[in-house]
């Protein structure tokens, strides 16, 4: 697995380098310089987007186990930082976030269940956002090869997401327990699986909370469109909101499909070059747009990674206290 990740990273770097060479380093640099204050605006928009994701996660917690909203938002920044800046295949940050939630005396099963549900809802709304982008692209340009390829990709994504939701049903716990039994694992692990799935069932048994979380996630995806619109406007290539939505939605879909490539390096850039070309935007500004997005990831992700290490360090110094991260209080 590590070998594959290394290969994917090398391939992504090579693709990124090839795109820069094809676009012209000077053109890319000029576009980044022309962006100017757009960099700050993109960072601020990204901060709002991640905060919205934190709110969406917060809404999934049952009232008696609810993580404070400011903590949920802060930990969501950590989740995002780990997923975007470390080679963890876009899921390691969610594991870290669930663990850190237990530092605030949230049950481990509840923290894990809300994180699983949050990831599922995020994936579902991401697919819906991509489908919206395909519909807007058809409205702007009519049918074509790109629309058909995007539609096929969206169909595959919907099937995978549906399978993920099915796995969260009781059949998923039975399959996991059967696997653990075959591996000779008994006791605490199987009990934790049962508690985790019970917590998942309780989350989905509250459709109001799930609906509110889903709505916030969808609004967050749409809000991300302003990153594209603002950045391209400052670079001298203004696009309509509809055009920016197509670029953002399908660009996110392309990056999500390449989850094995650390940070989607090269893949995100290639997708944005192809999508921007639909609206007459040259490769240089398209690559500059991707660079601005990566600046936002660094500007927000690096402090989040530092905060993660500070939280873990404080935990080490408090080891003499009862460890609530592995217990199940208030059940």
Automatic annotation (TrEMBL):
The keyword NADP does not apply. InterPro entries: L-PG_synthase/AglD. This is Putative membrane protein. GO terms for cellular component: plasma membrane. The chain crosses the membrane at residues 37-60, 119-140, 146-167. It is a multi-pass membrane protein. Its main location: membrane. The keyword Transcription does not apply. Keywords: Cell membrane, Membrane, Transmembrane, Transmembrane helix. It is found in: Cell membrane. Pfam families: LPG_synthase_TM. Signal peptide: none annotated.
């Amino acid at each position: 697995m590590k070998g594959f990740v290394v290969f994917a990273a090398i391939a992504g770097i090579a693709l990124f380098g090839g795109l820069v060479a094809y676009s012209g380093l000077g053109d890319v640099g000029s576009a980044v310089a022309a962006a100017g204050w757009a960099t700050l605006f993109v960072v601020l928009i990204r901060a709002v987007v991640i905060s919205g994701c934190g709110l969406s996660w917060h809404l999934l917690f049952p009232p008696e186990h609810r993580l404070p909203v400011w903590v949920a938002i802060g930990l969501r920044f950590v989740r995002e930082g780990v997923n975007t800046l470390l080679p963890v295949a876009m899921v390691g940050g969610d594991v870290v976030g669930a663990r850190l939630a237990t530092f605030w005396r949230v049950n481990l099963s509840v923290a894990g269940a809300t994180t699983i549900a949050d990831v599922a809802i995020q994936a579902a709304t991401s697919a819906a956002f991509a489908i919206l982008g395909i519909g807007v692209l058809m409205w702007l340009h009519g049918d074509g090869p790109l629309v058909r390829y995007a539609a096929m990709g969206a169909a595959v994504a919907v099937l995978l997401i549906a399978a993920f939701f099915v796995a969260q049903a009781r059949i998923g716990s039975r399959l996991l327990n059967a696997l653990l039994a075959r591996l000779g694992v008994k006791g605490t692990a199987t009990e934790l699986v049962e508690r985790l799935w019970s917590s998942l069932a309780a989350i989905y048994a509250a459709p109001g909370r799930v609906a509110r979380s889903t709505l916030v996630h969808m609004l967050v995806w749409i809000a991300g469109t302003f990153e594209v619109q603002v950045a391209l406007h400052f670079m001298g290539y203004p696009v309509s909101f509809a055009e920016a939505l197509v670029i953002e939605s399908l660009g996110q879909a392309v990056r999500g499909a390449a989850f094995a490539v650390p940070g989607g390096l090269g893949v995100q850039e290639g997708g944005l070059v192809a999508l921007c070309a639909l609206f007459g935007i040259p490769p240089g500004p398209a690559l500059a747009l991707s660079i601005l997005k990566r600046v936002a990831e660094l500007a927000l992700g690096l402090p989040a990674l530092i905060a993660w290490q500070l939280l873990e360090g404080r935990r080490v110094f408090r080891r003499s206290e009862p460890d609530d991260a592995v217990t199940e209080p208030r059940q």
